[in-house]
Amino acid sequence: MSTQPKIKVENLKLWYGDFEALHGVDLDIYEKEVTAFIGPSGCGKSTFIKTLNRMNDLVENVKIEGTVELDGKDIYKKKTDLNLLRKKVGMVFQQPNPFPKSIYDNVAYGPRTHGIKKKSELDEIVEKSLRQAAIWDEVKDHLDRNALSISGGQQQRICIARALAVEPEVLLMDEPTSALDPISTAKIEELVAQLKNDYTIVMVTHNMQQASRVSDRTAFFLNGHIIETDTTRKIFTNPSEKETENYISGRFG
Ligand SMILES: Nc1ncnc2c1ncn2[C@@H]1O[C@H](COP(=O)(O)OP(=O)(O)O)[C@@H](O)[C@H]1O
Ligand SMILES: [Mg+2]
């Protein structure tokens, strides 16, 4: 295992107005691993994953304390370049959310905003990203089709391709398969297993089989705390905390 975590979170607290949603969370996330967040609805998984690329900055009345370091640098420092941060730390959401544009323009969007204009260069990035997202063969003959006209499972892989097109280092995925059918879900799980060769992946899932299938490490969240973090194998076979055991054995949540 690598020694230096890719992301190091220390004593992270987050309030929505007066409501404290995260109560001092610590977590190390390692490079080229899949880290899963599990826990019952409302325990702070989405809130926490969004702190990793400062998506909560977009929510009103949010207050954050503590540190989140990416490669040893605190991303909450005033001088952080948010565009660069979100280029390095990309995100895929629960509901596929392609832009109402062609498949090609969805994937080319990020590279274009970062100044790439040459058609041949964009073509290359679009193809590479769609291949990485395991959807090239399905869409290569109609890249000009509106991305909203394809199936939900395909839309989600377009969103993954869109995230990969700017060459991120970390990919955050918040319940990326919860709106998808079982076949599309299996495709995304296979894809995640592939992508971890090149990327650091953080994935929220309320599907425990999914966490145990795809992740290397698992963090169990409860009421705005991380109760336990360990290898996925340990969490699912021999957790240290009673609350984790109760949750994974289906006694609540
Ligand atoms: N924008 C918001 N404003 C106020 N409260 C919020 C907001 N988003 C989430 N919360 C609250 O924060 C808590 C954690 O929510 P969330 O992070 O979405 O949990 P999870 O993803 O684990 O289901 C919940 O009590 C939720 O109601
Ligand atoms: Mg959530």
UniProtKB/TrEMBL annotation:
Membrane topology designation: Peripheral membrane protein
Subcellular location: Cell inner membrane
Domain ABC transporter: residue ranges: 7-248
Function statement: Part of the ABC transporter complex PstSACB involved in phosphate import. Responsible for energy coupling to the transport system.
Gene3D superfamilies for this protein: P-loop containing nucleotide triphosphate hydrolases (3.40.50.300)
Nucleotide-binding keyword on record: yes
Superkingdom of this protein's organism: Bacteria
A Pfam family of this chain: ABC_tran
Name of this protein: Phosphate ABC transporter ATP-binding protein, PhoT family
CDD domains: ABC_PstB_phosphate_transporter
InterPro entries: AAA+_ATPase, ABC_transporter-like_ATP-bd, ABC_transporter-like_CS, P-loop_NTPase, PstB-like
Keyword annotations from UniProtKB, A to Z: ATP-binding, Cell membrane, Membrane, Nucleotide-binding, Phosphate transport, Translocase, Transport
TM annotation in the entry: none
Listed GO biological process terms: phosphate ion transmembrane transport
GO molecular function: ATP binding; ATP hydrolysis activity; phosphate transmembrane transporter activity
One of the record's GO cellular component terms: plasma membrane
